[in-house]
Amino acid sequence: MYRARLSLAFAALVALVCIQAAFVYWGANRVNDYAQHSRLASDIQSELLDLSANKQRLRVWAMQRLMDTDAQPEQRQRLVAAMYASAANLDDLVQRDLALWTELVRREGVSMPAEVPQLVGVTELLRDNIQAVEARLAQLVPLEQGADFPALWAELTQVFDMARGRDLRELINGAIAHQRAAVPVARAATERGLDALRAQAIGMALITLAVAVVLALHLKRRLQRPLDRLLEGTQALQAGALEHRVATGSNDEFDRVAQHFNAMAAELQQHRARADAARRGLEDAVQARTQELSAAHDTLQRLDQRRRQLFADLGHELRTPATSIRGEAEIALRGGDKPAEEYRQTLARIVGGVDQLTRVIHDLLLIAKAEADQLVMHPTPVDLQALLGDAAEQGAALGATLGVQVRLLHGPEGSGSGKSAQPADRGSVVLADADRLRQALVIVLDNAVRYSAQGTTVHIGLQQAAGENGADGSDAIEVVVRDEGIGIDADELPRVFERFVRGRRARAHRADGTGIGLSIAQAIVQAHQGRITIDSAPQQGTVVRIALPRVACAAPAAPQAAGARSGALA
């Protein structure tokens, strides 16, 4: 089986790689031991030389002290501390060198040099000698007139050079000489170890390469013939010869592949026959479907004509009562026998509402006649906080009949903190057509009120649009309308701004409505370079956000009379 041969080949290569890694690891450990021995010998020699040099400096200091010249105690303490440090380092290095030689003796069977354990004893003598030197020098005073200098100097020399009856100078000089001789020997051993490691690595690499080449040639020869047969079969299928079959009989993995390939070719041949029959049936079905689509097109044209007629009827039906209301309001205003000034203001608001209602009718007619809204805007600086107050009053009037409260949130950024509203010249001024923008706000409030349960509250307020800017890149302010109503299903949210679309919950809650209010509000907001978005969840309420670009303006347009507040509701 080809799979078994391939597994054996990989196993052989892995085994060779493991053997090579073992040789390299063993050789690297040997080289590392030799290199460590070389470093230790060099460090020991350096510490011995430093110790001897510092002791010689102490001799000079002692001479200067006896002669009462410039011999500072601080210099003596510094030299003694340096000798203690050298002795401690030397003790650590000697212990590590002894442990390394012990490991070499155990692993390779070499003999340990006699100087290695002797050097351990030297380090112990050094500590005693340094203590004796420190104690004697601390008692040293300048020579008096007529003192015996040779005898005193001989005593000092005895303290410097002898410890436990042994000559330290001879021991240290011998140790330095041994380390000087050991350094090149250790370096030579390291070089030999590196050469041996290099030779082993090259030899194992060559062996692995040779085995890999032999296995590759063998597998290639075993692989070439079945691959050629499969390639010939794929080329035949590509050319459309579905009757071609790959030869079998090798009883290996490729033979099973060839059998599956032949089964696939037979199945494709059957599929082709069925596809030809299905294509002929599809051509007949397409012809029949074309006729059905033509009939459906005629039906859609009739529906579109009905939609246009609907808008025309709405315009006609709304214009007549609006004109009548306007006439009655104007007569009431002209009447001299009306004593109540408040009543006159109420009639003024009615006239303004009628004007706005007429403009809404024009918008409805425009929607019915064109693919997109073409609203004529008359932008002026408008205090958005004041405009929200007008819209909230109209929304409250709508909610009063349905048992729904409309609450205007005050405070900076519409936080509802109970503080006074943010001044117009400090961030709530937008460049807008006040009537059109009020119309959009009232449409949103009307929807929030109409689709809220009795006893709930609709909130409206301002806030800074987080991460939002106007279309021209300016800072944006956001109107937020939040209700506690029936909500909108998630699958219907993407279509809320489409004309004539009303959701399942909206139709179940109220049978009236044409489904064009939000499309009009979107057109108005977009005409102001703004953006309107809706977030909602079933039975959890709906949040409408209208982001508008903020402008710097010290004198916003004064709010219109209350009669102009009445927006068209859709």
From TrEMBL:
EC number: 2.7.13.3
Residue ranges annotated for the HAMP domain, each copy included: 221-273
SUPFAM superfamilies: ATPase domain of HSP90 chaperone/DNA topoisomerase II/histidine kinase, HAMP domain-like, Homodimeric domain of signal transducing histidine kinase
Source organism phylogeny: Bacteria, Pseudomonadati, Pseudomonadota, Betaproteobacteria, Burkholderiales
Class of this enzyme: transferase
Keywords: ATP-binding, Kinase, Membrane, Nucleotide-binding, Phosphoprotein, Transferase, Transmembrane, Transmembrane helix, Two-component regulatory system
PROSITE patterns: HAMP (PS50885), HIS_KIN (PS50109)
The name this protein goes by in its record: histidine kinase
GO cellular component terms listed in the entry, alphabetical order: plasma membrane
Entries under CDD domains matching the protein: HAMP, HisKA
Compartmental location: Cell inner membrane
Domain Histidine kinase positions: 313-552
A molecular function (GO) term: ATP binding
Parts of the chain that traverse the membrane: 201-219
Reaction(s) this enzyme catalyzes, per UniProt: ATP + protein L-histidine = ADP + protein N-phospho-L-histidine
GO process annotations (BP): osmosensory signaling via phosphorelay pathway
Pfam family, one: HisKA
Main localisation: membrane
Membrane topology note: Multi-pass membrane protein
Domain of life where this protein originates: Bacteria
